[in-house]
C-alpha cells in the first residue's frame, strides 16, 4: 500500500515535469521546409535568418517568423478606371512575386503580402489611366511590363521580387462595345470594297492586254472564237452559231465608215 502511495506521489511530480520538458522541446527545436526561412528575434532584436531543416532556439527568449520563399500570387480586384482618352473600363489583374530576402520582408514592411497587393492595385489604376483604350487592348504586354517594373522598383527595398503582372480582363461599357462592333463592320466592308475594286482593276488590265495582243495578231481573235464555240458545244444548249470570216467584218467596218463620212461632205480647200 505504501508503494502505491509513493508511486502516485512520484507520478504527480513526473507529469508536470514531462509537460514542461515537452514544452521546452517544442520551443527549442523547429523544422522548416525547403521553401521556408525563419527570421529569429532574440528579446525583440533581430538575430539571424535560419533554415531550412532543423533549427535550435532558446526557449521563451527566441521568437521566429516564418517566411515562404515560393512564388505567391495576388489577385487585384476589378476596379473602374478612366483611360487617357476618357473611356471608363473595369480592369483586374494578377501579380506574381516572391521573397528574395526574408529579413527585409519582415523588418522593412508590415504584412508584406498586403502591402504588395495595395501597391499593385494603385499602380494598375495609374498605368491604365495613362494609356488609351486601343493601346490597352492591342498592346497589353507593354502595359503589363510597365506595371511590373514600377511595382518591382518599389518593392525592392522590401526584399520582394515581382516576377510578372498580367491584366486579366478589360470590360468595356455596352455603348462602347456597340460602337466598336459598328467600327469593325465598317472596316470589313471597306476592305471588301477595296479588294473588289482591286480585282476589277486587275481584270481591266488583263482585258487591255488582251485587246493589244489581238490588235497585233488578229488571228488570235478567231482562235478565241473557236474556243468559245467549243466550250458552248460541251454544254446542253440550243444555241446556233454561224461563223463569220474576219475579212467580212473588216469590209463591214469600211462600209459603215463611208456612210458616216461621205466624200461630198468633206470641206473644200480655200482658194488661194
Notes on the structure:
With 272 residues, this protein is of the alpha+beta class. The chain folds into three domains: 14-68, no CATH class; 72-172, Band 7 domain (Tetrahydropterin Synthase, Chain A); 182-258, no CATH class. The chain contains eight helices and eight strands; from the N terminus they run αβββββββααααβααα. It has helices spanning 2-28, 102-107, 112-128, 133-138, 140-155, 174-216, 219-234, 246-260, and strands at 29-32, 36-42, 45-50, 53-56, 62-68, 72-82, 88-99, 160-171. The strands form three sheets. Strands 3-2-5 form a three-stranded antiparallel sheet. Strands 6-7-8 form a three-stranded antiparallel sheet. Strand 6 and strand 7 (88-99) form a beta hairpin. The protein is elongated, with a radius of gyration of 46 Å. The mean pLDDT is 81.
Topology readout:
Layout: H1 2-28, E1 29-32, E2 36-42, E3 45-50, E4 53-56, E5 62-68, E6 72-82, E7 88-99, H2 102-107, H3 112-128, H4 133-138, H5 140-155, E8 160-171, H6 174-216, H7 219-234, H8 246-260
Antiparallel strand pairs: 1-4, 2-3, 2-5, 6-7, 7-8
Amino acid at each position: 500500500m505504501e508503494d502505491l502511495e509513493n508511486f502516485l506521489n512520484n507520478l504527480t511530480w513526473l507529469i508536470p515535469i514531462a509537460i514542461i520538458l515537452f514544452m521546452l522541446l517544442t520551443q527549442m527545436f523547429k523544422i522548416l521546409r525547403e521553401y521556408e526561412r525563419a527570421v529569429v528575434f532574440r528579446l525583440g532584436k533581430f538575430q539571424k535568418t535560419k533554415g531550412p531543416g532543423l533549427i535550435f532556439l532558446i526557449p521563451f527568449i527566441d521568437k521566429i517568423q516564418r517566411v515562404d520563399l515560393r512564388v505567391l500570387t495576388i489577385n487585384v480586384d476589378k476596379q473602374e478606371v478612366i483611360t487617357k482618352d476618357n473611356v471608363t473600363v473595369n480592369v483586374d489583374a494578377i501579380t506574381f512575386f516572391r521573397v528574395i530576402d526574408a529579413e527585409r520582408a519582415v523588418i522593412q514592411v508590415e504584412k508584406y503580402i498586403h502591402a504588395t497587393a495595395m501597391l499593385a492595385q494603385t499602380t494598375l489604376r495609374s498605368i491604365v489611366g495613362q494609356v488609351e483604350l486601343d493601346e490597352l487592348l492591342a498592346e497589353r504586354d507593354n502595359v503589363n511590363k510597365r506595371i511590373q517594373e514600377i511595382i518591382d522598383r518599389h518593392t525592392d527595398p522590401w526584399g520582394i521580387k515581382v516576377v510578372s503582372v498580367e491584366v486579366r480582363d478589360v470590360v468595356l461599357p455596352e455603348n462602347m462595345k456597340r460602337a466598336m462592333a459598328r467600327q469593325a463592320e465598317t472596316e470589313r466592308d471597306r476592305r471588301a470594297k477595296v479588294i473588289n475594286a482591286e480585282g476589277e482593276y486587275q481584270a481591266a488590265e488583263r482585258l487591255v492586254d488582251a485587246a493589244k495582243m489581238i490588235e497585233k495578231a488578229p488571228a488570235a481573235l478567231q482562235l478565241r472564237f473557236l474556243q468559245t464555240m467549243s466550250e458552248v458545244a460541251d454544254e446542253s444548249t440550243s444555241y446556233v452559231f454561224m461563223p463569220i470570216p474576219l475579212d467580212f467584218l473588216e469590209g463591214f467596218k469600211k462600209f459603215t465608215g463611208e456612210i458616216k463620212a461621205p466624200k461630198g461632205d468633206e470641206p473644200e480647200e480655200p482658194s488661194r
